[in-house]
Write a structure and sequence with these properties.
With 262 residues, this protein is α/β, with parallel strands linked by helices. Helices cover 39% and strands 16% of the residues. The chain binds 2'-monophosphoadenosine-5'-diphosphate.
Length: 262
């Protein structure tokens, strides 16, 4: 999506993927900086490690405690600084609004997963003033930790660990269950039925349709996969690096072509 966007804007830039062992992350960032890279994206498991490895943390990275985007910037004394950003949190909300048309203020949300993605989603949803947030995770202590953080930071949000007793507006999957095509659904339908929600969002975008999304569609619910989230975190990073408006349509088409071979 980035290379398509560079081409569309006539920028002689390239976006390349590198696999970096976490123990070499600091050296990789310094190397990119030394070679005059404009910036970097980082993904699992580097997002938390990178927080300690940049010169400056943008508010977004401070707030979410993770860096997925770095911009290298020359400052007034001609030194290059690495600035760390987080574009994931905004992207979740943008995609929920765009793809599911859900109003988050006052909504009741069941969130599955309390790993890195789940934590960011939970805090961001709370900051959007959802009314009720139910956190379900295989390792319950992680969900409890996030619930505690929300109680402190967002006392007006009703947060609880476990499946809700009443209906919700949205179920959001932030677990990695579904990445493999034979994975079971992360929703325990004995504890909470799909009939008790209006919409389902799965952060997974490959496969395009997880077991959870398949069931949601069969139940006639509004549903969306994580492609929009991938798009928006990328578009925001693109704007940070280039200072230009991201060509969203071009980027979306490139994603669909490359991921789904449409
Ligand atoms: P990410 O950065 O994508 O969130 P992560 O931090 O490794 O990755 O989180 C993975 C999430 O998927 C966690 O919520 C994890 O549950 P645990 O906290 O109990 O590990 C969840 N997950 C992964 N495999 C799972 C499985 N087989 N069943 C249920 N949940 C699973």
């Amino acid at each position: 999506m980035h290379n398509a966007a560079f081409a569309a804007l006539g920028l002689n830039w390239r976006y390349l993927a590198f696999e970096v062992d976490p123990k070499n992350l600091r050296a990789a960032i310094a190397g990119a900086q030394a070679m005059g890279f404009a910036g970097l994206n980082l993904t699992v498991p580097h997002k938390l490690l990178a927080v300690e490895m940049v010169d400056v943390l943008d508010e977004s990275a401070k707030k979410w405690g993770a860096v997925n985007t770095i911009k290298f910037e020359r400052d007034s004394d001609d030194k290059i600084r690495a600035i760390g950003y987080n574009t994931d949190a905004d992207a979740i909300i943008q995609s929920l609004r765009e793809d599911l048309k859900v109003e988050l203020r006052g909504a009741k949300v069941l969130l599955l997963g309390a790993g890195g993605a789940g934590r960011t989603a939970a805090l961001k949803l709370a900051s959007e003033n959802v009314a009720e947030l139910y956190l379900v995770n295989r390792t319950q202590t992680k969900a409890e930790e996030i619930a505690g953080e929300i109680k402190k930071q967002f006392p007006s949000v009703k947060v609880a660990v476990g499946y809700p007793k009443s209906n919700v507006d949205l179920i959001l999957n932030a677990t990695s269950l579904g990445l493999k095509t034979d994975d079971a659904s992360p929703l325990d339908e004995k504890q909470f039925s799909l009939e008790q929600t209006h919409a389902v969002y799965d952060m997974i975008y490959r496969p395009a349709e997880t077991a959870l999304l398949k069931s949601a569609k069969a139940a006639g619910l509004k549903s969306a996969n994580g492609l929009g989230m991938l798009l928006h975190q990328g578009a925001e990073a693109f704007e940070i690096w280039t200072g230009q408006t991201a060509p969203l349509d071009v980027m979306r088409r490139a994603l669909e072509e490359n991921i789904y071979r449409k």
